[in-house]
Amino acid sequence: MSILKIPTARVFEPLLRSGRYKGAFGGRGSGKSHFFGELLVETCQAERGTLAVCIREAQRTLAQSSKRLIESKIASLGIGSGFKLFADKIETPGDGIIIFRGMQAHCGQRLQLRLMRALETRARRNGWHSIVSDTTDNIASANNFIRAGYRLYQPQAPWAWPHTLYWRKTMG
After folding, report:
1. Is the Cβ–Cβ distance between 9 and 39 less than 8 Å?
2. To the nearest whole number, what is the mean pLDDT of the chain?
3. What is the pTM of this model?
């Protein structure tokens, strides 16, 4: 087995530490999917038998998933021989598997709320004043923001679609 040496942007370095839940937020084009895609491929290569699920908030079909990105990371890192690509999943070295799901299918399990709580814990620890996020065309996600105590917010420089809702929670 070879050791992969993948350069990591400084902003993502805290996500290299061990943790049960990992999440990142930011605007389109901030590199989140590419970072997590490379991290997942590296983990699957190093830890045989890794079981993973890739969850996207707005995924309704596999075409909207991160599957194609993960496949391109496998190819660009030159480790395709250990992975088997299927229409709906990727088998990884050592009988592992990566599956792809949209958050809408799992909204009853409160995954988004757990991720929000983990982010809020980190924000408090780092001394942040507030958290700002957004949601577009996703009623279940908007309801989760309300349940978690977020309030509608109008940023000075909106970064998403004209009909996007922005949410803010002040850390107390």
Report:
1. no
2. 81
3. 0.56
For 59-126, the three-class secondary structure string (H helix, E strand, C coil) is CCCHHHCCHHHHHHHHHHCCCHHHCEECCCEEEECCCEEEEEEEHHHHHHHCHHHHHHHHHHHHHHHC
**Of the candidates 126, 140, 105, 104, the residue with the CA atom closest to the CA atom of residue 171:** 126
Inform me whether the pLDDT recorded for 1 exceeds 50. Answer: no
Let me know: does 123 contact 168? Beta carbons within 8 Å: no
CA distance 24 to 70: 17
Give domain 19-106's CATH superfamily. Answer: P-loop containing nucleotide triphosphate hydrolases (3.40.50.300)
Contact 37, 76 (CB under 8 A): no
Of 45, 55, 40, which Cα lies nearest the Cα of 115? 55
Contact present, 21 and 115 (Cβ < 8 Å): yes
Pairwise CA distance, residues 80 & 136, whole Å: 35
User: Which residue ranges make up each domain of the chain?
Assistant: 19-106, 110-170
